[in-house]
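Researcher: Quick one. two chains, 577 residues in total.
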Amino acid sequence: MNSEKITKGVLLLSSFLILFVAGGMVFSLVKGAIPAFKSFGISFIWLNDWNPTEGKENYGALPFIAGTIVTSVAALLISLPLSFSASLFLGEYYRGTKMAKVLGTMVDLLAGIPSIVYGLWGFYVLRPLLIDLGLPNQGFGVFTASIILAIMIIPYATSLSNEIITMVPNELKEAAYSLGATRLEVIFSVIVPSARSGIVAGYILSFGRALGETMAVTMLIGNANIIPTGFFGTGNTMASVIANQFGEAEGLKLSSLIAIGLLLFLLTGIINAIGKFIIKRMG
Amino acid sequence: MNAAAKITAANLSRRTFKDRFFKGIVFFLSVVTISPIVLIIYKLVAKGYRQISLNFIIKTPPDTFEAMTALSNGELIPGGIANGISGTLLMVVLASVIAIPVGVITGIYLYENPGKPLANLTRNVSDVLQGVPSIVLGLIAYMWIVKPITSGFSALAGSVSLSIMMLPMIVRSTEETLKMIPQTIKEAAMALGVPYYKVILRVLIPTGFSGLLTGILLGISRILGETAPLMLTALGSTIINLDITKPTSAVPLLIWEFYNDPNMVDLIWSSSLLLMAMVLTLNLVSKRIAARTK
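Model:
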């Protein structure tokens, strides 16, 4: 009989399996979130309260959405100059040299460090340092979490920007040099404009990573179920509140956590889709 | 020298200075960027090396009272993290058994049907899966396995969450690897009348083997250190457990437990050192394989 048809069937089946898993995820998250949305309506998303006291249960996602966005944006801003420099180091200044190879390997290794190890380092090394510098709340809070998050997302932005910067045609750069431009001028008037969308896509994707990071943030953000009062205030992110509160969660609370998971899923999905779309448009 | 030349000369030296200054900043910030990896590894080695021994690998952790006694006598905390190591191995192997075949076969499907709407959809969905935060995968495995199937926290649930995490990476790397194989090799096999499944098993997979291996190893190195999804699924256990329907520990879960227990806190460094050693070795090995094939 035709083994060819069977083979093709198996290939098709396994790709259906992935679609099925993804569809199932959406279905399960929505189903799990229904009780929460039934109790609080769509206003669950902008309800600024998290009260698990029995009889007065009231859950809203706003503190955590705010915490997630504040920490991730801060992390992105902190990581921006660092990953931009590293990608220029790798793709322009020291391209092809041994130094670039060493630096590139080390940046890649940053992506390999487990989140919990980042958390420990942040807790035992970075936090005491920040306390000495006068940070309130024993060094816990948005700022501390953002620094660690920034280090964690550097490799993602760096590797994509570096790839794109390397792809800028030599003729363009040489034309600018022949007009007497310095290297700095070549970077900002030739390389950056022609690699712009790739660099932006890299930052968007690394922002998407920051949104969903759990352990390191949980260990450093201070775990207060409120909207962060400022850059140095404590708070909680969507991922960290799930990690924190899941242990004793049941009923409405569990459903609210799943609803937060659903919102996080949608948020990261949208951000990643934008990043991927920009990359695709570049060809 | 006339005035115009003077201005140009001053302008040029200013431009050269700016250029040099910027290069200096780039160099400095690049060093800042990689300094955490050096500092983190230094901290782990400096604080963790004393605990590393054979016992650390083959024994289970002490209870909190034993640890407290050892601490107050100024001794090393006895015991090790055998339950974590065995649990990590169990769950990683099980996750690989689930994710590798599905991922590789899907990758082959994408490679064989470029441009088909279903293939494009699968590729996009797989990209979406890759971006899903690991904690959400933990919630999913909790709803799919912990509640209905094992009716309690289990290694199986942990493996399922890890396998969903690995899957898109393997799909991606398989497709990318196969794309690099010259079309003629496949056509030669087809022309000889080799059945389709044999073309896949005997030609495509062996030719792209090192690429596939790289993807798989990178996938494994990524799930080895995952903590968040396991907190929602495998939970942890104080004994060595190899029953996939029972709660199981893992190295990262143990680190989390030690971190939360003041008496055991000394063990976090050696456990993290061991975990980092495993992750970074896998990382470097896979990079080495990738570099050799290029």
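The longest strand of chain A covers residues 50-51.
Researcher: Thanks, that's what I needed.
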